[in-house]
Design goal:
15 helices; globular; five-stranded antiparallel beta sheet
């Protein structure tokens, strides 16, 4: 039988020691990912108008403050204000200032913080005219949405666009189907341009449309208009540019046809702010408008978008002092340093005068009376309306479910109101899917050995709002509301078992195999069974 040389002996011994050390070290390298916890998750919902910029802010701020994460639901201004009123999110985002009715429905006084400025474009898809620059007036746009101008080669349009090959084809009109701040701005503009529109339709986040088809969100309207020939639609400019849509040059108050650009929108802002000083954050913003600004080079359909926060952040019973400070610091960043990311997405950076109002407003915010950004004179809030007594709610019922994967058992626990959990399955590296019956509020605790770093919760493929109520080394507890007609809920995470289980198995198996091999070589050398002690 062959003998093992001393050199081979040393090599094998080195392999054994090295692999054993590697099996101990590499799993430790996974610990930061498995154990690191997000200190605070800020939850917001609302405007699709501001979403391209908000999503950029989310990424950039996380790079600076990795302990803070932003969960923003781009669901439309109306739905965002509803969630803010219901205290299921930390802030609402809206293109329309709060109405008197919305303000009265709030559980406490709130403030407006304008954080971005954009423009709404009239996009079109006209076969044979694949370029921007069709000239339109406000009255013609109103007549199109009233159904009075219904053909692309209508004399009103043709007279403004000599030489343009306008087809003899019906105009396919698209509008928002959801409660929308973009709709508020657009319909308020139409009301200023058409007496008939103002008297029959009016303006708001939702109106009774005389003609057209609806789609949800700015992206939904953009996609619908792109896929339909001979279409017209109104969308925030970032969505038009991202989707390579053609858009009209609109006649402004000086009679000039203006292309929507950063410069023409900036001109509108400067003229509007100079003509009408801005209110304080805790005052009404319902009369603030950037429409039809009195400047020869201003684009006529521009708008602020706003964040809405409670003046005393403890109005939301789920709020903590640390989270309130994190929110105020984040908002302070987006209205100052965060403005550097506006222009690349076709948003106009806030003028200094607007930033000053925002900073004064942020300095007025408190938590149980305690200022969150230092001592400063706080504007006196209006008395909070007394909410009516809520209807009796069913008592939360406890739930416990267990499932197995690869011989390992996992258990989730929690409480639910009106929801029954029937089973759950683990989709490795993806999600935990829970089968449900009914609708209502849920508080769910999930072990981190099964899922960690929860990133989103989906109901029937649609993202829903959730809050992380607590998190420790062993589990994460989240709260969310199961919508009606939901059969399953998916909880998504960056680590779903088995993420590094196979790696650990491999790292354990290799040293064992090397030890066995080494033992066989030693047996060959010495004639003894096993490995000598």
């Amino acid at each position: 039988m062959s003998r093992v040389s001393k050199t081979q002996h040393k090599i094998l011994l080195g392999l054994v020691v090295g692999m054993i050390l590697l099996s101990m070290i590499v799993p430790v390298s996974f610990l930061p990912k498995a154990m690191a916890q997000t200190a605070e998750t800020i939850n917001g919902a609302g405007s699709t108008f501001v979403f391209p910029l908000m999503d950029t802010w989310r990424v950039k701020y996380s790079n600076i403050h990795p302990e803070i994460s932003l969960n923003y639901q781009s669901i439309g201004s109306g739905a965002g204000i509803n969630q803010f009123t219901a205290e299921t999110v930390d802030f609402g985002a809206t293109d329309a200032p709060l109405s008197a009715t919305q303000t009265k429905a709030l559980p406490g006084p709130a403030v407006h913080i304008p954080e971005s400025i954009g423009s709404i474009v009239i996009a079109y898809n006209i076969p044979g005219f694949n370029q921007k620059g069709l000239k339109l007036t406000g009255s013609i746009i109103a007549d199109i949405y009233l159904g009075k101008v219904w053909n692309w080669n209508d004399p009103e349009i043709a007279s403004l666009n000599p030489g343009v090959p306008l087809p003899s084809h019906q105009i396919n009109v698209y509008h928002r189907a959801d409660g929308s701040g973009t709709t508020y701005v657009f319909t308020k503009y139409l009301s200023s341009q058409s007496a008939q529109w103002n008297s029959t339709v009016g303006y708001g986040t939702a109106v009774q449309w005389p003609v057209g088809r609806g789609a949800t969100g700015n992206q939904g309207v953009a996609s619908a208009a792109i896929s339909a020939a001979y279409s017209i639609a109104y969308v925030e400019i970032a969505y038009a540019l991202q989707n390579h849509m053609n858009y009209a040059f609109i006649q402004n108050s000086a009679g000039n046809f203006i292309e929507p650009t950063l410069a023409s929108t900036q001109s509108a802002v400067s003229a509007a702010v100079a003509a009408h000083p801005l209110p304080m954050g805790n005052q009404s913003w319902s009369n603030v408008s950037l429409l039809n600004a009195d400047s020869p080079d201003s684009y006529p359909i521009a708008s602020f978008t706003y964040l809405v926060l409670y003046q005393d952040m403890s109005t939301n019973p789920k709020m903590t002092l640390d989270k309130a400070k994190a929110i105020v610091n984040f908002v302070s960043w987006i209205v100052t340093d965060g403005q550097q990311y506006s222009q690349a997405l076709s948003f106009v950076p806030l003028p200094k005068s607007v930033v000053q109002v925002d900073q004064q407003t942020l300095a007025s915010l408190t938590f149980k009376g305690q200022p969150l950004l230092g001592q400063t004179q706080t504007p006196q809030p209006q008395p909070a309306p007394q909410p009516s007594s809520p209807p009796p709610q069913p008592s939360p019922q406890p739930l416990t479910l267990t499932s197995s994967l690869d011989g390992n058992s996992y258990t989730i626990t929690g409480t639910s109101t009106g929801v029954q959990f029937t089973s759950f399955t683990i989709n490795p590296h993806q999600s935990v899917r829970i089968q449900v019956q009914g609708k209502g509020d849920v508080i769910l605790t999930l072990p981190k050995t099964m899922i960690d770093h929860i990133t989103s919760v989906m109901a029937e493929g649609q993202q829903i709002n959730y809050n992380i109520k607590s998190s420790d080394q062993s589990s994460t507890t989240i709260a969310f509301t199961v919508p009606d007609n939901t059969n399953s809920v998916d909880v998504m995470g960056t680590m779903v078992v088995p993420e590094f289980g196979p790696v650990v198995l491999l790292l354990v198996t290799i040293p064992i195999a090397v030890i066995v091999l080494y033992g066989r070589y030693r047996t060959t050398k010495s004639g003894m069974v096993g490995i000598p002690g």
